Amino acid sequence: MSSTLIDLNHTQEEKIFQDKIDGELKIEPKDWMPDAYRKTNIRQISQHAHSEVVGMLPEGNWITRAPSLKRKAILIAKVQDEAGHGLYLYSAAETLGQSRDEMIADLHSGKAKYSSIFNYPSLSWADMGAIGWLVDGAAIMNQVMLTRTSYGPYARAMVRICKEESFHQRQGFEALLVLSKGTAEQKAMCQDAINRWWWPALMMFGPRDSESTNSDQSMKWKIKRKTNDELRQNFVDMIAEQVKTLGMKLPDDKLKWNEERKHYDFGAINWDEFWQVVKGNGPCNKQRLDARRKAYEAGKWVREAALAFSNKRKQKTSAA
Ligand code: 3HC
């Protein structure tokens, strides 16, 4: 086929693709898509999956130290959910042609990112509440938007994940509510956890729009429906109201309702800290990746046994 014909064909495919996006149709695995669309979805979905799996670590740290059997059961259920979210998202990324082994190898080598938030230590039981309320709250803000993302498997994975995330956020808020009505030490523990998780939670939405390298294209392709700053602002507005119920304060003396903007004004985020953590120099980056590599090694025999079993079964069915 002559090159002009190939180019014509290509533009036709581009047009059909963009018409689908503009027509609010989902892009499915077997549809033609620009390489860059495939690539940025693999990037975002796989990093989302890594975040879910690494995100199990700060909370897993408190399962054996939960203050009651009820709290332990709730926390185990939540951490287990996160593992499932990671599996859905790895499966969604695999539909784009990236193997799970490649994605895991990219995480373990430090090549792939995961959410900066999980590189902070969980220092007290109140952190379980602050993570549920603030981290899962920020995740929901972002993930509800992603239920409308243009790539079909990603959007559908988000629908189920969002249902479970709302349980995560409520159990976190409820745990803090109990502490906020407790002894002076419990109140102080609650406020301390909020102080430590507030600013890193705002960083979860990504850099300022002016520094967001992927946003413009992701908005055009409806991978994103809102920008980083828009989602961050929605989150601040929501939490600034919810914190009143706890009788606690957010650690930002610039936080103030702006009647004209109909939003809360808030203080400056420490973007140097953000980029340091993204680059691997956060408080727990090394610990988190070491733990993931160790768990992956320890689970090798399970993967090998499962593979041997499925190969045996394939041989049996093909021999029958
Ligand atoms: N931590 C680490 N890296 C981050 C980051 C963060 N908080 N925010 C942005 N980055 C990275 C981006 O990945 C990008 O690097 P890359 O091009 O090498 O991937 C760079 O910083 C510039 O950021 P952009 O704004 O250009 O990147 P995006 O357009 O991808 O927007 C995002 C960033 C909003 C996080 C988007 O990737 C997204 O919506 N991802 C899906 C949701 C997600 O991953 N959430 C993470 C938390 S999951 C979670 O909390 C689990 C819950 O159960 C607790």
How would you describe what is shown here?
- The chain has helices at 3-22, 35-54, 56-60, 69-94, 100-109, 126-146, 152-180, 184-203, 215-220, 228-246, 271-278, 285-298, 300-319; strands at residues 256-258, 263-265.
- By secondary structure, it is mainly α.
- Bound molecules: 3-hydroxybutanoyl-coenzyme A.
- 3-hydroxybutanoyl-coenzyme A is lined by residues 43-44, 47-48, 51-52, 55, 82, 85, 113, 115-116, 135-136, 139, 142, 165, 203-207, 212-215, 218, 228, 278.
Put the structure in a nutshell.
With 320 residues, the protein is mostly helical. It has 13 helices and 2 strands, in the order ααααααααααββααα. It has a two-stranded antiparallel ribbon with strand order 1-2.
